[in-house]
Specification:
The protein has 202 residues and is an all-alpha fold. The protein contains nine helices and no strands.
Length: 202
């Protein structure tokens, strides 16, 4: 079977990518409630029918935008962890990578502010856990297997770290623009100190 995509398939993929890029920009600039599918279709220079061909609703389109944002951030954190020399350094590098991502106004607006509005709190939390919790569990498991932590329940520890990171992301995005870097640095210092406080004594 040929792996070469037809022109129709290439056009369809290009249209979907364009819709995601346009929706990302508009949701970040205007917010979810003030952005309509008509706005997105017009800015992408496609029909509303073309939007519905790829996404069943505005909420479905927003969820795809959020997924794209989270996938990028998680991959960046995984790359940072993979480059670290040991499990402790990997956890710290991953933490730093995530908190730096929270400074991005597009990521912050879409994920931290508009996510609960667009999807409802429960669905938003499910999406966030689906993207981030596995990565956090991996970091915690690596620390436990390396003997770096005192005996702790791995899954519960990961869920608590997930909650801490979410709270940190919210705090960064709630801060005035001029204070966000300082809040990010403070959050990193506090969370790193909490995690390192679980280290097994030498």
């Amino acid at each position: 079977m040929s792996a070469v995509k037809s022109r129709r398939e290439q056009y369809s993929e290009a249209t979907r990518s364009a819709l995601l890029a346009t929706a990302t920009a508009l949701f970040a600039a205007r917010g979810y409630t003030k952005t309509s599918l008509e706005d997105i279709a017009a800015a992408t220079q496609v029909t509303r029918g073309a939007v519905y061909h790829h996404f069943a609703s505005k909420q479905a389109l927003f969820e795809a935008v959020l997924a794209e944002q989270e996938t990028t951030v998680v991959r960046r954190s995984e790359k940072a962890a993979a480059a670290a020399p040991d499990p402790v350094a990997a956890a710290v590098a991953s933490l730093h990578s995530f908190l730096r991502s929270c400074l991005d106004p597009v990521y912050g607006r879409i994920v931290m502010r508009e996510g609960p509005v667009a999807l409802g709190f429960t669905r938003w939390q499910e999406c966030e856990q689906g993207f981030a919790l596995g990565h956090i569990e991996e970091r915690v498991r690596a620390l436990i297997e390396a003997g770096e932590l005192v005996p702790v329940p791995g899954q519960l520890t990961a869920r608590l770290v997930f909650a801490l990171l979410g709270a940190a992301g919210m705090a960064i995005n709630d801060a005035p623009d001029a204070d966000r870097v300082e809040v990010m640095e403070q959050a990193e210092q506090v969370i790193a100190a909490m995690l390192l406080g679980l280290r097994r004594p030498a």
